[in-house]
Design brief:
The protein has 545 residues and is α+β, with helices and mostly antiparallel strands. The protein folds into two domains: 1-35; 140-542, 4-Layer Sandwich (Purple Acid Phosphatase, chain A, domain 2). A hairpin with a 2-residue loop joins strand 3 (76-79) and strand 4 (82-85). The protein has helices at 2-18, 29-35, 167-178, 209-214, 226-243, 278-291, 351-361, 410-424, 475-478; strands at residues 49-56, 61-67, 76-79, 82-85, 87-88, 95-100, 108-114, 125-128, 140-145, 154-155, 161-162, 184-188, 252-255, 319-324, 328-333, 368-373, 391-393, 398-400, 432-435, 441-449, 452-453, 459-464, 489-498, 501-509, 512-520, 537-542.
Length: 545
């Protein structure tokens, strides 16, 4: 295996040389890739596997895998007696995906990866499909977190770090979360940070330092060129060492947000980051293609939604469903991919997506329906690409709508209120929204949204907690204000947003939903405390009688 790694480094060095030295300035490609070394699994031999991330439904399993060397022939995934031949995701044979269909609902399978010659590529591992849509399970546990991306930072003790949280500490947080044995996980946005343009300070709208170092050919294809090498070198070290193979037995659902489209949600007179530029859209799609699963089809989700059924796999890149029998359905939606700038007619999610969300919110057969958008309900940090019109008044240090937020679109708020109306109108379910993005952990109860009165059925809204946020990534630092309820809402804060790293566990039972939130403070707690983290906030949300 050592020789394979050396061969890989020689290839990277050769590629960098062919591109005129290092495309990452003082960080040559080999060094970038070494930063992406996966964590060593516990009691499991990864063999030549660098990272492994699965997703599942009641009848299908989709697995994304990367290896520490290119494979010249397709490997296979065995599920008990079934066998699926791998599909290459890149152009070199380092990245592969396996799509197993026609599986039995609610069944625990034994999975194993094999080379074309039949040799084992790693140890086998278990993974279960979800219950059939008509089944009646009595418990479902889901892990929620956000903002796990970012280049590896440095840490030299309590309160002493630079940049993003080091990937080893992010992995430690996720391992603690996995110790509670969730049935599924939702990674809600910002899996990578490699913004290609500058939005603050000097040279606004021009290429950022990351953009200049990447040396992307914006008119070229992502795959099969120097662009592919640069994309892997930038994205891989932000994902591989964070997850490794730890989630091999836990289906995980990745929602993309603004940074996953290689840009911050920002705008000037010269340039707007969204709707996303074509090349960056290709980068976002390529990152997903290589590293984490798309959303598998669901019988109740139209196959023709935007960015769905884009190839023969019939998967969706932006809109997903986690269906666990009749107990729970979680609606996952990316608000960036179909974002428009039509003033009062603008939307975050396409009109057909909104129709699907409203229909599923009213579906009578489910005990629980949860919304999980990539843009949070309930709070604002005054930035451009939010549902809300609030902006920071730097004189008072608070949010205000007395000053117009440049380029903000009234239609975004109108769509928000239509969704809120439907969520709050559920008579026999807990109205619940769980999101990420704002780099905080929090819980609130929304009693009003504009003219929508929610007092008889307040919506519980949750900020799931960030995993990798940088020193300058918290809203109070970069924007001058933390996550704050906007003027459009009346929000009762059970947990006012906390700018610390953490995650949320949600337990679904037929008659209630349990929330547990966990936090770790890099400024006051040692890394070892992560291994014993317990919930700092717990609550039960009973279903209405």
């Amino acid at each position: 295996m050592t020789s394979m790694l050396l061969d890989r480094r020689r290839f990277l060095a050769g590629t960098a040389g062919a591109m005129g030295g290092s495309i990452f300035g003082r960080l040559p490609l080999g060094a970038m890739m070494e930063q992406g070394a996966p964590p060593a699994p516990v009691d499991w031999d990864p063999g030549s596997v660098r990272h492994l991330l699965p997703s599942a439904s009641d009848s299908r399993i989709l697995v994304k895998v990367s290896f520490d060397h290119p494979l010249s022939a397709a490997p296979s995934l065995r599920l008990d007696t079934n066998e699926v031949v791998g599909r290459m995701s890149d152009t070199r044979g380092e990245y592969w995906q396996f799509d197993a269909r026609g599986l039995d609902p609610g069944r625990r399978y034994e999975l194993s990866l094999h080379s074309a010659e039949g040799g084992a590529l790693c140890d086998p591992w278990p993974l279960a499909t979800f219950p059939a849509p008509s089944a009646a399970p009595d418990h479902f546990r889901v892990l929620f977190f956000s903002c796990a991306g970012g280049p590896g930072g440095s840490y030299s003790g309590i309160g002493n770090r630079q940049g993003f949280l080091p990937t080893a500490i992010r992995n430690r947080l996720l391992r603690r979360a996995l110790s509670f044995e969730p049935d599924a996980a939702v990674a809600n946005g910002d899996h990578i940070y490699w913004d290609l343009h500058t939005w603050l300070g000097e040279n606004v709208g021009h290429l950022s330092a990351s953009g200049r170092r990447s040396n992307f050919d914006f008119s070229g294809s992502v795959f099969g060129s120097s662009n592919e090498v640069a994309m892997k070198a930038a994205a891989g070290p932000q994902i591989v060492p964070v997850y490794g193979s730890d989630f091999r037995s836990t289906p995980v659902f990745f929602l993309q947000d603004d940074h996953d489209h290689w840009e911050n949600d920002a705008v000037t007179d010269e340039i707007a980051s969204f709707p996303v530029a074509w090349f960056q859209l290709q980068l976002a799609r390529a990152t997903q293609q290589l590293y984490y699963p798309e959303f598998l089809p669901d019988a109740q989700r139209p196959i023709g939604l935007p960015w769905s059924a884009v190839d023969d796999r019939r998967v969706s890149e932006s809109f997903g469903t986690i269906r666990f029998g009749r107990l729970a359905e979680i609606l996952l939606y990316d608000v960036r991919r179909t974002m428009s700038l039509g003033g009062p007619n603008a939307v975050f999610v396409d009109s057909q997506v909104e129709r699907w969300l409203l229909e599923r919110t009213r579906a009578p057969e489910l005990a629980h329906v949860v919304h999980a958008p990539s843009n949070p309900f309930g709070w604002s940090a005054g930035k451009w690409g939010e549902w809300y019109p609030d902006i920071l008044d730097r004189d008072s240090g608070s949010l205000t709508t007395a000053v117009e937020k440049p380029y903000w679109q009234q239609g975004w708020l109108s769509q928000h209120d239509r969704l809120v109306q439907a969520i709050g109108s559920q008579q026999n379910r807990v109205p619940l929204v769980i999101s990420g993005d704002l780099h905080a952990i929090g819980v609130g109860r929304m009693h009003r949204a504009g003219v929508v009165d929610l007092n008889t059925r307040p919506i519980t809204t949750v900020l799931s907690g960030p995993i990798g946020t940088s020193v300058r990534g918290f809203p109070s630092v970069v924007r001058g204000i933390g996550a704050t309820p906007p003027e459009h809402l009346d929000v009762e804060e059970s947990v006012a947003p906390i700018e610390e790293h953490g995650f949320t566990l949600v337990d679904f039972h037929p008659e209630s939903i349990g929330l547990r939130q966990f936090k770790w403070d890099v400024k006051s707690q040692p890394v070892e405390a992560i291994d014993q983290l317990e919930a700092f906030y717990t609550t039960q949300l009973p279903r209405p009688s």
